[in-house]
Amino acid sequence: MVLGRTLGVALVGLTGHVVDVEAHLAPSLPAFTLVGLPDASLTESRDRVRAAVTSSGMAWPNRRITVNLSPATLPKSGSSFDLAIAVATLAGAETIGGAGPHGTVHLGELGLDGRVRPVRGVLPAVAAAVAAGRCRVVVAEANVAEARLVPGAEVVGARSLAEVAASYGAEVAVPTLPAVDPEPVQDRMRPATLDLADVMGQDDARACLEVAAAGSHHLLLVGPPGTGKTMLAARLPGLLPDLSEADAVEVTAVHSVAGAFDPREGLLRRPPFEDPHHTATPASVIGGGSGVPRPGAASRAHRGVLFLDEAPEFSTAVLQTLRQPLEHGELVLHRAAGTARYPARFQLVLAANPCPCGQAVGKGLACTCRSEQRRRYFGKLSGPLLDRVDLQVELGPARSGSAAGESTAQVAARVLAAREAQAHRLVATPWRTNGEVPGGWLRDRLGPDRSLMGDLDRALDRGTLSLRGVDRVLRVAWTLADLEGRDAPGRSEVGQALLLRTRGNGA
Hints:
- By secondary structure, the protein is of the alpha/beta class.
- 36% of the residues lie in helices and 17% in strands.
- The protein contains 20 helices and 18 strands.
- It has helices at 40-43, 45-55, 82-92, 122-131, 144-147, 161-167, 203-215, 229-239, 245-258, 282-286, 297-300, 316-321, 323-328, 371-378, 383-386, 408-425, 439-444, 454-462, 467-483, 491-502; strands at residues 2-12, 15-26, 31-35, 64-70, 105-107, 109-110, 116-117, 136-140, 154-158, 219-222, 273-274, 287-288, 294-295, 305-308, 330-335, 338-343, 347-352, 391-394.
- The chain is elongated.
């Protein structure tokens, strides 16, 4: 009996767990058993590993092989364990030295010809290994650039299993194989050339967009077709400041797990922008899939913008599942295969027509919809969902003769100054922007003058605002004060925030 050992990493959400990969070879009838709570894709690694070993010119041990992935109670999925299983098996068969691979993490999928193929989630996996004190990591050559983004990692790239085995002392010829190209990545970012100056007129909506960017507030844009709702939403990411180092690592890790990250460009430094089509399913927006759930558009928009164009056309299931991440900034996905946590602190931007035909503006004389159609259409945006949206603005028809407004660079400079003021005020707290701060904390800093709350108390008594709505009005009021360079909001800012919250119907 011989035992071979090495290490792998199991990802559950963004959390990586270092896994001991043990291969036990016993003199018995030849068999290959994989234990330790593997899923279907991981169970298939037995055939890939056997073919890769023989294709690399090494003898497959004709013994009873039992590979254990420990801890056995942790769900494990995917093909990233292929390389670790092969190395542990070869170490148990004494084809390679047993001491070398024992403390090294191996991440990679094996092709039937012995080549090492790239896998998703290398960045959070390597980060977990380094945090556990396992700094030496062997990955596919196509994953080297991504793995080296983790500080302190000693990364070794490999093209083939034979190359890895030879580095551990195996007497095997290393074939000259072409490297496996990384998976093509669809660019989910909006081009950086989108300028706010392209939006003609709509001064109120532009000002509202600036407030949303400055305080990280959620936004609803309502207006007839062609008024610039989509143009405004697409330009919001350009107003946001660059991601901090910690945020860049977290956002990049999410995109790595989702397979939407190109490591050749380094960490993602700009806020992401996600705009799923209105036919998207809850699993594609929130996350899901077979096995351990994968991140959806809401998590890929972490620290960026999630834009739902034609929001009432989305299914009710999609819209209602957004309520939890809007409140907590996190998605917890429970499935039979395990529970995954993904960060989802995004800015939600909803765009909607006032009715199915889109012409119910002003007196609505051009509208062809029946009253029940209007109610049913806008009723898809439920009260609990809209109660979590800080800013709600109505857009009127744009005029062709409107003068061009300020550019993205000009507005972004004011947004950055407001964000810096918030960072200074919140330096000793767990929050970063006004959009995250609870209302109690904000009320305590308004001072003893209760007259500031007069308009809000009256709106609360009339039922125009909920208690949550009062807190969100205060958040916007503080953002307005930050944009104006004031230390705290006054009655003017509170009144303006109330108008922005209620579309002019709550004063």
